[in-house]
Design a protein that fits this description.
This protein is an alpha+beta fold and about 140 residues long. It has one domain. Helix content is about 35%, strand content about 25%. It contains three helices and five strands. It has a five-stranded antiparallel β-sheet. The longest helix has 22 residues. It is globular. The termini are far apart.
C-alpha cells in the first residue's frame, strides 16, 4: 500500500518525509501528530520553516520566537519536531514559539496530520509491567 502525503493526499512511489510534532496544551496535556510530506510539500513547507528556525537559533538565546523572530512572552510554548527525511539521519528540533506562530503551526499540523496516542495514557502501565517482569512491584500510594 502506497503512503500518501498529508497535504495533497497523492500516493508516492518513493519514501515520504515524516515529522512527528508535539507540544503541550495550556492545561499541560501532551499533543502529538505525525505528518507525512511528499518531496514537493517537504520542500515548500519544511524547508522555509526550518531555515527560519536555523537562522534564528544561533542569535536568539531562547528569547525570540524561532518562526517570526518576535520577543517571547510568558504564555509562549515549545514545539518539538522529530524529523525523518529520506536517506538522512533523524533530527530532533525544539523550537520556542510565540502564541501566534504556535497557533498557526499547530493548526496546520492538526489539519494535515494523524493524531498520535497520548503517551501518558499507556506509559505508566507499560513501565509497571516492565518492573514487575523482573520482580519489582510498585509501592501503593497512601
Amino acid at each position: 500500500m502506497a503512503q500518501s502525503c498529508g497535504y495533497c493526499d497523492k500516493p508516492t512511489r518513493g519514501p515520504l518525509a515524516s515529522v512527528y510534532w508535539a507540544w503541550f496544551s495550556p492545561d499541560h496535556e501532551r499533543i502529538a501528530y505525525r505528518v507525512k510530506y511528499c518531496p514537493a510539500h517537504a520542500k515548500t513547507i519544511l524547508t522555509n520553516l526550518f531555515k527560519s528556525w536555523l537562522s534564528r537559533v544561533e542569535e536568539d538565546f531562547g528569547q525570540l520566537c524561532l518562526t517570526c523572530g518576535e520577543l517571547l512572552e510568558q504564555d509562549d510554548a515549545t514545539l518539538w519536531a522529530r524529523v525523518y527525511l529520506p536517506g538522512q539521519e533523524e533530527r530532533n528540533i525544539d523550537a520556542e514559539q510565540c502564541g501566534s506562530c504556535m497557533s498557526l503551526i499547530s493548526a496546520d499540523v492538526i489539519e494535515h496530520g494523524t493524531k498520535l496516542k497520548n503517551r501518558s495514557e499507556f506509559a505508566p502501565a507499560r513501565a509497571n509491567e516492565t518492573w514487575a517482569a523482573i520482580g519489582i512491584l510498585p509501592v501503593a500510594a497512601d
